Amino acid sequence: MSRTSASSTPASDAFPGSAEDLERLLAPATIRARAGRILDAALEGGTAFAVRLDRLDAVADLVCEVTLANHPTLDIPYHSRWNHFQAGGRDRNGALDARLADLDPAARCRAKLDLAIVSVLLDAGAGMGWRYHEADSGLDSARSEGLAVASWNMFMAGRFSSRPEEPLRVDAAGLAALSLDALREGFQVSGDNPLVGLEGRFRLLRSLGEALGRDPQRFGLSDPRPGNLLDHFLALAAGSEDHTLRAPQILRALQGGLGAIWPSRLAMATPSGVVNLGDAWHYAPWGPQPSADTVMPFHKLSQWLSYSLLEPLLEAGLRLTDLDGLTGLAEYRNGGLLLDSGLLELRYADQAHLPRAPGSDLVIEWRALTVALLDRLADPVRARLGRTAEAFPLAKILEGGTWWAGRRLAADRRPDGGPPLVIQSDGTVF
User: Fold this and answer.
1) Which among 9, 162, 342, 393 is least surrounded, fewest beta carbons within 10 Å?
2) Long-range CB contacts (< 8 A, 24+ apart) of 80-84?
3) 114 neighbors 169 (Cβ within 8 angstroms)
4) What are phi and psi of 270, to 5 degrees?
């Protein structure tokens, strides 16, 4: 395991595991398998949630209705950060392309990887009280779109670059120079406009800068930046039999390069050192102590980031395969769709109003059931829309799709449009 995945968690606080155990807990196939175990338990009455599979067809109908309303021709982009940059109908992606037009394809891709990575790392639940005002367009936005537009404007202004003559980049030196006040200003945070987890987001960016400098194999030696992952991906594709890059390889590269930036929650003591597991949680019904067999992984932000790198890599000429090797995203829009539609029901309804930490068994179950039931929804949605799994991967169902249907139901049911459960977020999970 590379040094970049080492955790700051003391070895005495980590549970033991082999290199094979570590790879299992980082793999999306394990996320799916263990989410399936929790779904089986729920169907047998062994979780905080009841599953109403008789509601599956109705939810598939809703997802198709929302998909066709958003994309009548079914020409749907992948679920990614790039769609949020278009908030308010403004073509920010086109504006970025115009600024990058004089660069070669590889340099354009590196810039886009820079932007996608830093923007996704800043994309977690903003809270109900925060909004972002874009002066140029007059647009006021909140939640994911507001965070996307704020990070896009900071990137376009060169706030993450150490080179004034090259503002459209993110590099280790630029992140090291970024201050909390600069991030607060960029996101317009104040006493009247609070952003949940601002300090957590700032720590992620500082940790990203440090990780870039520690991993020359992935991020470059003389000029470490996220966009240098392009060269790593090109090498992986060149070394494959069919000269393609598999989507799970993107996730694994991100986990290897960025694993150390996540807050220390669970860590595994492997023969190569202590490794931070990131968005992975001890699930008590599987055993009283954390172990390789009692942890439920999600890696939500890492997978969201993987989805958000697909389009720039395709533009750079890479051939991508196994898109459904990644899982659905265990976050509150997809999970909210399941609860608000009645596909999931809390066995004790009064629990919905109690604040829950991401590591609580109830939240772990909600997220795992979200992953498992998104897979269950995929086939009936494809059947209704007349699309094959190859032509209509999960990345398009999410975008079409489940995420927007979850938002619509939330707006119908709650004045603030927030999630159906109260989650204590630190800005790095949801």
Assistant:
1) 342
2) 80/116, 80/307, 80/308, 80/310, 80/311, 80/395, 80/399, 81/116, 81/119, 81/120, 81/123, 81/148, 81/304, 81/308, 82/116, 82/308, 82/311, 83/399, 84/123, 84/144, 84/145, 84/147, 84/148, 84/149
3) yes
4) -100, 170
Please state, as a whole number, how many other Cβ atoms lie within 10 Å of the Cβ of residue 239. Answer: 8
Query: Hey, is 333 helix, strand or coil?
Result: helix
Residue linked to tokens 């003559």: 165
Query: Taking the CB of residue 45, how many other CB atoms lie within 10 A of it?
Result: 9
pTM for this entry: 0.92
State the Cα–Cα distance between residues 91 and 83, nearest whole angstrom.
10
Q: For 131-158, how does the pLDDT look when each residue is reduced to its tens digit (9 = 90+)?
A: 999 999 999 999 889 999 999 999 999 9
- Rounded to the nearest angstrom, the gap between the alpha carbon of residue 142 and the centroid of all alpha carbons in its chain is 18
Cβ-based neighbours of 407, under 8 Å, separated by 6 or more: 333, 336, 417
Spatial distance between the Cα atoms of 255 and 42, rounded to a whole number of angstroms = 30
Residue 311 neighbours by CB under 8 Å, 6+ apart: 77, 78, 80, 82, 112
Decide: 114 and 224 in contact? Cβ < 8 Å.
Answer: no
Query: Could you tell me the sign of the dihedral formed by the alpha carbons of 66, 70, 75, 81, in that order?
Result: negative
Residue type, 171: D
**Whole-number Å distance between alpha carbons of 210 and 356:** 31
Most confident of 98-102, 197-201, 219-223: 98-102
| Single-letter code of the amino acid located at 202 | F
Q: Is the dihedral of CA 159, 163, 164, 167 positive or negative?
A: negative
Average pLDDT over residues 81-89: 94
